[in-house]
From TrEMBL:
<protein>
    <submittedName>
        <fullName>Uncharacterized protein</fullName>
    </submittedName>
</protein>
<dbReference type="GO" id="GO:0005829">
    <property type="term" value="C:cytosol"/>
</dbReference>
<dbReference type="Pfam" id="PF02635">
    <property type="entry name" value="DsrE"/>
</dbReference>
<dbReference type="InterPro" id="IPR003787">
    <property type="entry name" value="Sulphur_relay_DsrE/F-like"/>
</dbReference>
<dbReference type="InterPro" id="IPR027396">
    <property type="entry name" value="DsrEFH-like"/>
</dbReference>
Length: 117
């Protein structure tokens, strides 16, 4: 099964990105044969910025993304959204790539499940 999670919200301030990543990690844990793909849109592209400081005991999205990627998950960030926020040319979390709406379109039609956060 192919599962696509589309995240639209900033990394911190709400828990939408956090909850999407919790679900991605649980899918990988409970359904090892599932293919997890994550696409970052709008303010969610800032989730891909490495070395964001979080208070002790607070969730850290970079660690969560690395865990999903390590287990075979694929993460892409919208290039237009990244460019609009001035992060298109900076290094992202290892394993996250800048992508296109065309890629999102392809992933959407080829996925068995599509969830948005």
């Amino acid at each position: 099964m192919k599962v696509l999670l589309i995240i639209n919200d900033a990394p911190y301030g709400t828990e939408k990105a956090y909850n999407a990543m919790r679900l991605a990690m649980m899918i990988q844990k409970e359904h090892a044969d599932a293919e997890v793909r994550i696409f970052l849109l709008a303010d969610a592209v800032t989730c891909a910025v490495p070395k964001q400081s979080t208070p002790e005991g607070y969730y850290n999205l970079e660690r969560m993304f690395k865990s999903v990627i390590k287990k075979g998950g694929v993460v892409k960030a919208c290039g237009t959204c990244a460019n609009a926020r001035g992060i298109k040319g900076i290094n992202l979390i290892d394993g996250i790539e800048i992508s296109t709406m065309s890629q999102l379109s392809q992933w959407t039609v080829s996925s068995d499940k599509v969830l948005t956060f």
